[in-house]
Amino acid sequence: MTLNTAPRTLSIGRQHFLLIAALFAMMTSPAYAWDYDFRGYLGYVAVDSDDGFSCNNKACKGVFDESLFYGLSASIHGEHLGAQVIVSQDLEEDPDISLAQATWRQQLFSMDLGLRAGKIIVPLGLYGSQRITPTTQPGLVFPQSFLLNAYYDILTLSEEGLGIDLRGDILGFKAAYYEPEDVLSQRTVTTPGSPGPLDFLLGGLLGLDAPTGLGGTPPQQATVVDEYTNKAAYIGVDYRSDNYLADAGWIRQEVNNIELDAYNAGIQTSIGNLQPSIEVFELKFRDSNSKIEGISLNFLYSGDKWQTFLSGVTLDLETNDTQELVLGGVYFWGETGQLSTRVTWHRLDGDYPGVTTGIDKADALGVAVGYSWD
Fold first, then answer.
1. When you count CB atoms within 10 A of the terminal residue's CB, does the N or C end of the chain come out lower?
2. Cα angle 62-65-69, degrees, rounded to a multiple of 5
3. Mapping DSSP to helix (H, G, I), strand (E, B) and coil, where does residue 21 land?
């Protein structure tokens, strides 16, 4: 079975529509004192990449394929209640709601307690907690790896769920129960052919076992796509100080009666303007004991109006290894950095099953120009 991680295009469902309507009703209501924030971005990325391979994941956009992209984020928070909606997509597809959640916050034993429900994003690991924010495009806050984006999309993007956060001054505890995005399972079905009169003759003379279709019906092959709704649970802990951020998490997920575990552990520090981080992760199928192991190493250096970044990722897929190197930088114009340009070079060596096919040391150079506002 091949897992196709490219999610289906989502329409705005009833529960998401009601949440958005409630969000804007609260924003415009004079009866309550609410703090609200509205921001967005719009940009275009031109890509020059090697040919000879196929890429069927939304993470391909902007890396191997050119893309005109946009995003909107709206949030509102009162003393205890709040809500947030993030819409992000390539203009070739319908709008996709990345996040649509209602939140509730309260003090509990000198700690901040938060509950969120709706279409949540599960913050698995350092990269998972930082990659999907309103500022990731066009203004980068973290190197955007093609392999890591494709990997985390399998695990952390939900259709609906419930999350809880309990945070003190240094330590934080996180948990969630949710339904990840529907998974498409693609399989090839072969229908046997029926023998014809010449098959009996040729079969006897040549010793053929399978029908040739001469005078009969040849075998037929068809691709069948099955859609499964899966369920998952997450638990994590993080440590935050002025100079360090450490995060560890675990996900148990079930996809069509196939159980898998995903583990992440990483640490990030600050050395002046430099932010290096390292993270290790593993995805293990419980029935077969087959697994994916990986490690990512990232460096981000920030100036007054510019950033440069370097990211290296390697995945051990048991049957083959896949590596990615990301190098680039972004420059911001204006005091608020509303206009920016970004140059990124990706080198991918090896395939990622279900995501890419036929890749052998593929290079891609992307130049993006974007505008953001709030």
1. N
2. 45
3. helix
